[in-house]
């Protein structure tokens, strides 16, 4: 098999890249290791930055998002049994975010890809990328039990944190910067109307809690738990009891409970692989970087990467100049490190480390007070949360 751009992975990064390339008249083949159902049902991100919404709309993938997505003009910070609202449009000159699940973004992009007739192979697992520094890089893959090779002009690894593309970077070229955290998120999906109309990020002596949503009838909630916790170790009732404790306020606010339909644990890490290009092999999205989920940045970073890459590939095709491809890694990394910084700040602002001292707790409260009382500090959070400019 032969194509111009071989894309490994049909998560948000791979699917959107294929869509953007199609719009630019560049052909691609997408190889996805799992089946369609798995990709469409995997519960993950829920928050789209303004820039992500604009990109999906411009790519012709925004119709259902515009109908069903929920525009949010702020978040609530909860600490000391009090609430503080961060008003995004007021602090950023009109920016907001949209609640629209990653599962729905993927469903919309898969439907468009199949409609436009572009190759998207499910259950096609990439085994290795070969010849990254040659003119004809290849992806060895296995589809329906048969081994095959995809020959390309370019290969893009959109294959997530555990993918194979990153392994094709020689040890002397790769540089990894990482940090793991001694806690994780236990997430539930519940058939109950959200108890608040905006997201609530809560700092509590017992640990972090987050109230989010998927629709006016479905709540998504997260609890900080120790790293290594098994989801099955928590009964539904224990999860609701703990959420109630950590989200409690002095003004009579109540958490509504409902049937839990899904429960899982997400580990937390910060990770950046530099550079994001080796010869004709590029990395995009979680394949190159991970942020802890507290700032809701992962999916949005993946979108930024593929927008930058699609623009660079189209530029090369149009003008013959590789200048934007040469700048790809540095351009993306500037935005990625800003998101790494913000995600780290949000995480350490709101979680309780197992070895936290009274001093650490007082500092967290002082940082939160500062955000609540200074327009400059509130603006800093609002600008980062609603999103840094794309490349
Ligand atoms: P992925 O979505 O991981 O997709 C990679 C794809 O590659 C997968 O489909 C995988 O099956 C496939 N693949 C892997 N290996 C191979 C192979 N060898 N061959 C073929 N295919 C392969 N981000 C936000 O922006 N906002 C949020 O609110 C948010 N909340 C989150 C909450 C949770 C609980 C979690 C876990 C994550 C959250 N994120 C959030 C992060 C976000 O989900 C990820 O950053 C995003 O999925 C990255 O997209 P991707 O396409 O790069 O990678
Ligand atoms: C969701 C996930 C996040 O990481 C976050 O910061 C906010 C919301 C969610 O899944 O809804």
UniProtKB/TrEMBL annotation:
It comes from the Bacteria. Pfam families: FAD_binding_3 (PF01494). SUPFAM superfamilies: FAD-linked reductases, C-terminal domain (SSF54373), FAD/NAD(P)-binding domain (SSF51905). Keywords: FAD, Flavoprotein. GO terms for molecular function: FAD binding; oxidoreductase activity, acting on paired donors, with incorporation or reduction of molecular oxygen, NAD(P)H as one donor, and incorporation of one atom of oxygen. Residues 2-343 form the FAD-binding domain. NCBIfam families: PRK08243.1. This is 4-hydroxybenzoate 3-monooxygenase.
